[in-house]
Amino acid sequence: MNNFFVKKTIHFFLLVLSVYLLSFFLVRLIPGDPVDILAGIGNSSVDVALIKEQLGLEQGFFGQLKKAIKNLVLFDFGLSIHQGTSVNDIIKPALLNTYTLAVTAVIISILIGIPLGLFVSLTNKNEIINIVKKICNIIIAIPSFILAPILILVFSMQLNWLPVSGMNSHLSIVLPSLTLALGLLCYLANMTLDCANDLKENAIITTARSKGLRVEKIYFVHILRLISLPLVTAIGMQLGGLLSGAIITEMIFSWDGVGKILIDSIHQRDYPITQAAIFFIAITFVAINFILEFIYRKLDPRIR
């Protein structure tokens, strides 16, 4: 167990470092000079050289790389080129908003998707199973940039139940979290339904039936325990898509998260914010997979 933990920890840090360095190279390949965007292209009244010196952009490529690695070690991403404030102070509230949105979406997906799959399997009616699977497949196929306007049109414009965008109301999180949750919810419902149907003739389930246990208990205790490992795997695999979907969703709903900050910083060529945003998205994704490795080992003794 200790060797496994050490190996995974080393792999974790190497992967995160690789992503950070890759983001450093890629953001500098984007056409455009941040100083020109900040000062205005062709603005001769501004001392461009002085601005570059203040922002640390007068250094060569390797000088900037050395500074970036030093900032990473110190966990200090410097100052924003456009806002002039600490990147850490900008990223922290954005991270909290993104995590709140993502966690809410995951909770909605798990609390509705898994029970839905079990209930539909419990009915044992092919008509209901086929209808639910078709509806779920349609929703899964709809990308978030199309699903979001549909939800806005229905719940905000027509019914006037929820705010269109922004973060001014405690209900503001409902539409963006639903946009993120629906795809994962339907995916989990489909997977739970298929797994439950496959296990109906399992020896454990047959034994439970022979003991006279209630059907509900068989499904929501025994079958749920048997399908826990594939469900955890599915949730882990889909979380990456959830994070990438959050970027688009945050832009549509004006949700002040890391995704919105990332897009804005790319437009403004704000290198420090872009690198920090990519770094925290990457570290979140890697950390989730890191945690899932340990959950697998707890759920399945065969891989210990």
From TrEMBL:
Taxonomic superkingdom: Bacteria
GO biological process, one term: transmembrane transport
Keyword NADP annotated: no
Compartments, record wording: Cell membrane
Keyword Iron-sulfur: no
Stretches assigned to the ABC transmembrane type-1 domain: 95-292
Full protein name: Binding-protein-dependent transport systems inner membrane component
Protein family per UniProt: Belongs to the binding-protein-dependent transport system permease family.
Keywords: Cell membrane, Membrane, Transmembrane, Transmembrane helix, Transport
Residue ranges of the TM segments: 12-30, 99-123, 135-159, 171-190, 226-253, 273-296
GO cellular component: plasma membrane
Provenance organism: beta proteobacterium KB13
Entries under Gene3D superfamilies matching the protein: MetI-like
Name of a matching Pfam family: BPD_transp_1
Membrane topology: Multi-pass membrane protein
